[in-house]
Design goal:
By secondary structure, this protein is of the alpha/beta class. Helices cover 40% and strands 18% of the residues. The structure holds S-adenosylmethionine.
Amino acid sequence: MKSFAPCKKNSPLELLRQAVRRLREKKISEPQAEAEFLLAEVLKVPRHAWHLNPQKTLTRNQAKLFYRLTGLRRRRIPLGHLTRRAYFMGLELEATPDTFLPRPETEELVSLALKLPQNRAGTLSLDIKILDLGTGSGCIAVALAKFLPRACVDAIDTSPPALAVAKRNGLRHAVSDRIRFFPDGLATQDLTARFDLIVTNPPYLSAADLQEAEPEVLRDPRLALYGGKTGTEVFEGWMDRYALTLKRGGWWLTEMGAFQGPKIRRIFQKHGFQNICIQKDLSGFNRFTYGRY
Ligand SMILES: C[S@@+](CC[C@H](N)C(=O)[O-])C[C@H]1O[C@@H](n2cnc3c(N)ncnc32)[C@H](O)[C@@H]1O
């Protein structure tokens, strides 16, 4: 790797230009935005704040750190892993290599979830019980608890380090009194007809998908990615185990792979769901399925 070479008094503009060029060389898709995030990280300021004082130079250590972080990004380590932060539904969350980095599609999933209870009873201030399966960083659980101030959420994940991060995110956003975290599933015999809403973003890549995944994706924990041979097996297992925990009239909403719609619909049908609907994400891919129990 080339070593750090300071440039024109380490001015932010100059260093930024250099970083954008280095990221572009490695075909990083949004080099300008990513370089700005990294610069802000080094300066410990909001993303565009350095614009306010572009003459202020970086110290040698800051410039070196910026160069090093850009180098790591060139090696396709995701930005969220470098900053240990993710933004989800306007909330800043801790993210570590132990957690799946929240994706924009999952923000759409949460927006859909917020509309479903509304369909049921016409208000968002409902006293509802929600289950978030495979909570990862806790992004879904925390966002739902934040936006539904009377809701209670149970969140499950088999990964203890991910669960530790999720708990800290609950604390950070002052919703941990309404979220219970479980490492190993719930005793379903005690939970028949408990939840009004189940929201899931399961691991849904197949073995073949994993082979073709971008290097950044493969930095997420394998447990968070691999959904079984065809990609839907983990989801199917969740349905087998947790469908009975929904109240009659409750909703299950899931994210899925773009080509999994027909299979996911059949799984919903097998468990007696009605009003099954498949929805596209903003990129135009079939991405979400929901149904009423
Ligand atoms: C795709 S990630 C979703 C994380 C988070 N909900 C999000 O949307 O960003 C799937 C999560 O499911 C968890 N997981 C995988 N298999 C599981 C299982 N059998 N039971 C519970 N959680 C599981 C993984 O550890 C991972 O955190």
